[in-house]
Amino acid sequence: MRRYSAFAVAREALRYHSGWERAWASPEPKKKYDVIIIGAGGHGLATAFYLGKRFGIKNVAILEKGWLGGGNTGRNTTIIRSNYLQDPSAAIYEKSRSLYETMSQDLNYNVMFSPRGVIMLAQTHHEVRGYQRTAHANALQGVKTEYIGPERVKELVPIININGPRYPVLGGLWQDRGGTARHDAVAWGYARACSDMGMDVIQKCEVTGIRRESGRVVGVSTSKGEIDCDKLGIVVAGHSGVLADLAGFRLPIESVALQALVSEPIKPCMDVVVMANTVHGYMSQSDKGEMVIGGGADGYNNYTQRGSFHHIEETVRALIETFPMISRLKMLRQWGGIVDMTGDRSPILSKTPVDGVFINCGWGTGGFKAIPGSGYGMAELIAKGSSPLTDAFSLNRFKEGRFIDESVAAGVAH
Amino acid sequence: MSTRLSTHGRLIDRSQTIKFTFNGKWMRGHPGDTLASALLANDQMLVGRSFKYHRPRGIVASGAEEPNALVNMGKGPTFEPNQRATTTELFDGLTATSQNHWPSLEFDVGEINASLSRFLPAGFYYKTFMYPRAFWKHVYEPFIRQSAGLGQAPKDRDADTYEHFYAFTDILVIGGGVAGLQAAKAAADSGAKVLLVEQSSAWGGRAMVDQVDSETVNDTPVDKFVEEITAELAAMPNVTMRLRMMGAGVYDHGYVLAYERLNDHQPDADGPRHRLWRIRAKQTITATGAIERPLSFAGNDVPGVMLASAVRDYVVNFGVSPGDRTVIATNNDDAYLTAIILKKAGLDVPRIIDARPEGGGALMEEAKALGIRVDLGRAIAKVKGSRRVTKVQICNQAGEGGVLDEVACDAVAMSGGWSPVVHLWSHCGGKLLWDEGHAMFRPDGDNPPRGASGEGFVRCAGIANGAMDLAAVIADAHEAGKAAAKEAGFTPKRSKAPAATSRADAALLPVWLMPQGAKTELRAKSWLDFQNDVKVTDVQLAAREGFESVEHTKRYTTLGMATDQGKLSNINGLAILSDALGQPIPATGTTTFRPPYTPISMGAIAGEARGEVFQPIRRTPMHDWHDANGADWEPVGHWRRPYAFVRPGESVEAAVMREVTNTRESIGLLDASTLGKLIVKGPDAGRFLDMLYTNMMSTLKPGRCRYGLMCTENGFLTDDGVVARIDEDTFLCHTTTGGADRIHAHMEEWLQTEWWDWKVYVANVTEQYAQVAVVGPKARKLLEKLGGMDVSADELPFMGWADGTIGGFACRVYRISFSGELSFEIAVKASDGQAFWDALMEAGSEFGIQPYGTECLHIMRAEKGFIMIGDETDGTVIPQDLGLDWAISKKKEDYLGKRAQERSHMTDPNRWKLVGLETVDGSVLPDGAYAVGPGKNANGQRNMIGRVTSTYHSPTLGRGIAMGLVQHGPDRMGEVLEFPGTDGKTYKAKIVSPIFYDPEGEKQNV
Fold this sequence. Notes:
A: alpha/beta, eight-stranded mixed sheet, B: FAD/NAD(P)-binding domain, FAD/NAD(P)-binding domain, elongated
């Protein structure tokens, strides 16, 4: 792999960039792999990356029905934070956040991780107490967060309306090393690194069957033919239920549309990420200048990657209340992604009833921030059968009632 | 130069002159001008700077597709960035400034990026700015953010208002050109209700510019036809017509969003600025026309290079000539119209450069006859000039760009063919076909967006449907109107489409790059996306690097992601990509079309819901009294409740302490009206409540109350409250304040989905009653003083209720207590609430009565060890964790949550259980603090063994008290735990019983 650098760009400029090679290869599938990962989104690619990096397992294929990074990896609002309440969540999200810190250097691909800070606003007494609790928990979990008062919120976000008539800002939970990253670049960076390790990233390759022999996976049927494998990782977010069905088991997952929107770009006016859970909205400003906005998920199940307008309305209304100046901005584009929701709103990283089949899903509305940590833990689970980062997220927890409920801390999509 | 002509200008009123400013300079225009036409009339071709390279940019188009002419408009509370000059109607006093430059439009430091453009290709930022690590946040990113971003951020609160409008119609027609008018007419003739909307300020569309001289409908000139059909439609009672209203988005189930700009053109007028229409239409017809494509040649972004159609729009509509000498570059016949119109207006057209070796049809002959020189098989090699076109260099289209000739000029009108506006068709899943002949995507009529019935609910009409000449447009629109009417359940009139003339054009030659074999130096100056600075070489680089999906290319290069949403760039870009990948264009496909069609204001999306009316505030009947008597308000759900009643000079904390002491010693009054009150009625009501509550409700006797717990099907405690049995069939269930609506919905869900055959009704009567808790040792004395019903312990024992009167008010009295004191909760009808409260306050003054708020309520219940939903519970706690086993029936076969509570983790002896906590030094434990045990877990986190759920200073005990959940807690009485605070201190607290006050319950049961 040719390294990327300013010098490389300058050198290429002299010949009008005619010498750049492909960022990732486009191979035909081999007959057999040690591990097949279904789904070349962030989580799938990160899983493959760490299989190679941590465990030397490089005979790996990542199969993608469409184009890599085209699902929720390329549709989210790019927020990265780890201020979760429950121990298992804090562990995996903080691992993830810390991996984002060095991801550009680790991948030699600028994913533009921008630790600009994330504020979750407290707008009811209940929220104040909830975030104070989270701050206490985070301190013991090794997650650096701080509960701050309204004056500090205003200082960090000058455009905010602290004294709104309906929900005045009472304080907030502040994570100064949270932030954003360029979502597409995360997928592209991992794809390039996986390809460089000799793994096959195979796009436009739809899995149509999962072949099993005496309770164990032996391979998959795809639109590009039969491919054998020893182990299989299903990492497909919104369509997890469909793939589980192919493998012969069911998941406690519902798929719903989550929407986001951006404004037209404007000059910098907000340097941090703000989440307002009481009124259901969150906003940050992209490096291009667009205000990136998200809110709640639709209340009905579907696979359409578009959503109903009333959610957009609810979100925008809430944010105008919080940031009155956006009233005179214009909505440039709205879109939707299909998120896979579990009953406790926490993910599933688990063995399955089929030997050799592992599943990573259920990230719901908050998967982007977890990509590197999820891949890090999932790779260990596939390689060794267990990982301290993932063990609490097993499928069994639904049978045992061992939920990891984060609704206390985050009542809104994120 | 660009200038106002003495002829043409069908849309402007030359009799009036209005003034406006651009970058502080006063300019003149006429009513009817757009900001863009007025700028051109004042020779202001340079209007902005591009996003990435800060290249000088001029007006390119005349409508919503304009990528460059975006301005900051207005001031203060009416300031708005990124206003599109081509769709902004001029008004007197308009102030506009150009964007994205420093220090000025003419001299922009950022232009250095343009000279460095070779070093800044698509995606260069993914390959650089990585070292040293900290530089991204502190150096690179701030620099990138500052140079991007276009317009300025508004600073003030928006001074304008907005509104929503709901409309229901049989047929919605979007687009008021000849196709839309004809489709609306054909549909309306069936008797169907028709709503016809047009985004601009005039009916007739392009035909009014293009066909007005030469073509006819029903043997009348096009403008006459438009005038007649508009009048006919306006006279029909079943037709509604709106100008300045754009179809913004099409959603599932025939839901269409439209955006009406009421006052943008008259900012001083009364009323809302924008209106968002939410339309339910049985059928929608999109007659949205087409957008001309630019051509990709070197220097196609120099100010003065414009779409050929836009050039003639400015001449015909506004009497403005973009240039004195205009060179035409084309691959089709349409641009010849521009040449003819310019020539006839007395302007110079030195050359028509037609890429087609065979040239065009009748229009070419007409142009030649006017004396215009036509070069066939030729192309523009390069446009010269920086802030304005000075000349073009001409080469062979089939070659590599060797210059054959140069022509001096100050404008270039280009046409690469037309693309139907298929956005609305595509928003909800309508599919597209590639039309080889016209080199364009058009709607695939067999694959429309489909509704619940499986039938299509959108159809396209006219050029939006791929009908390319007037006769075809009229015929297509007529059929679309009739078909939509039929689909909507009406019988269309048997009628034929009006006959119209059609133009005999020669075939178009697809030209995606000019010249075909352009060398890299030329391709690197050939723009695809003007606003985002994406060039032909950028798309080719993306293809080379493996970004083969059109979505990858879009995201890697930012092609089509600017505020014009790629209306000019997308098709050209994907043609270049297809060529680079060696595959046909349809194999590459398009990116997804997302709403809205053009950006719509956030203000319009929010509508009226802002400030006080953002969400309704619910007020109890006594709200105003509270407000007048020092209430420190706390939002609870949609309610406001007094946190405490603060006296002048008193702190909130002191008020709370005073209220607790007063209530415990004499008498306190709480407005409990917000508590949820649900009537559950029917022969199966008892059976139903037995399933909802963990304890038995069917055995409750009329006249008695019982405290109950409700769990989710996962076993977690979700709400609690007192249930009163009113009669054999009727229960009144009290819920928490925040829980009323949620529990009502919860009950309905189970009744409607699971126990739909049970005979039970549920009604939420929360607001029908004002409820007052009269609490304290002197409570009974007060009620006896007021007189009426017997409230003695014998007649109305603890956990009983009775109907009667008190002080002349009809009421229902519940003997229940959440404070541990003697307590009566008294419900009167809501309209009596304030008078009843007044009567209590007046009669109570001799007993030292004082109102109290929610914090006092919280402290008193914590002193008694009563749990609070939302404090002791958080969605992960089961009743068994809280020592509430006594409220769980052992006899019942089932209740919601029972099976879940039998799961292994729920019966795990290691679960954290409710205890009381007393700090060793009497201080108050921090809210939400965790108790730590020794060591760390496998993920390096401190081991936690418990947490604080409620913590207060108790004035009754004179010390801090807390409740918490602790592992094996009830078995560890007397143990001291450590709670690290976030303030750096460690707090020590002893495990005690959670009941701090009156453990025997003697005070409440008197």
